[in-house]
Amino acid sequence: MPDAARVIDELVAANHILFDQGVVDGFGHVSVRHPTNGDRFLLARSIAPALVTAGDIMEFELDGNPLDAGGHALYLERFIHGEIYRARPDAGAVVHSHSPSVVPFSVAKDVPLRAVWHLGGILGEGCPVFEIREVAGPGTDLLIRNRALGAALAKSLGPGTVVLMRGHGCTVVGSTVRHAVFNAIYTEISAALQAEAIRLGAVIYLTREEAEAAAACNAAQIDRSWELWKMRAERRLQPQT
């Protein structure tokens, strides 16, 4: 069982990597299931991902309540994380972002986001799109502000890896924080590649079998990308003297 200090260090690195790779900016967040208590998760206080340090990481119950808020502001959409962990015992980490290349696919009615290359195998034959209007009506700010909305999002995700959120962004899961970051980054890249392919003409997508085989292969190669991304993020975010 990994110790809490190492998990926190990886969660901090995940925040920095996602920023450096253009998946998050001042908004977005990543969490990890607690290493010794599956009914809790670790998530930063409300802060820009690039600025997260170990001291910003807080422990939450699945209902979104922190064990000790310490006077800190909390992410409004922390319910995304708790309700996915509740619904998906296999989920070890969750990334929520407004991934810029993904957002157009959340509003394009007839163009599902799906696998166009091997590193996008997790997208399969198409990702579900969460429509908040079906749960909370036409007048929300599109944010997942409570447990009911979080549970509805988790239901839309189902057993998959990626769920788009109409007019908002996406949420991605993985078995570990490294896996979730890997999936989030390649979802963003895949969306950009698919949009470019569509501009060129008719697209040949991966079959379900190809996508599943590719996703399984990719899951065994995560550390190579992680170490590169971590090194790059550390160099770029290192304070200048």
Query: Architecture, CATH level 2?
Result: 3-Layer(aba) Sandwich
Please give the radius of gyration in angstroms.
Answer: 17 Å
N-to-C CA distance:
38 Å
Quick one: overall form?
globular
CATH H-level homologous superfamily name: Class II aldolase/adducin N-terminal domain
Q: Largest beta sheet, briefly?
A: 7 strands, mixed
Q: Please list the strands of the largest sheet in the order they lie side by side.
A: 3-2-1-4-7-6-5
Helix content: 40-55%
- Counted by DSSP, the helix tally is 8
Account of the protein in words:
It is a single chain. With 241 residues, the protein is an alpha+beta fold. The chain has a single domain (4-235), classed as L-fuculose-1-phosphate Aldolase. Helices cover 41% and strands 13% of the residues. The chain is built from eight helices and seven strands; from the N terminus they run αβββαβαβααββααα. Strand 1 and strand 2 form a beta hairpin. The radius of gyration is 17 Å and the shape is globular. The model has no long low-confidence stretch (mean pLDDT 96).
Topology record:
Elements: H1 4-20, E1 29-33, E2 40-44, E3 57-61, H2 78-87, E4 93-97, H3 103-107, E5 129-130, H4 133-136, H5 147-157, E6 162-165, E7 169-174, H6 177-200, H7 208-219, H8 222-237
Parallel strand pairs: 5-6
Antiparallel strand pairs: 1-2, 1-4, 2-3, 4-7, 6-7
Helix pairs in contact: 1-6, 1-8, 2-5, 6-8
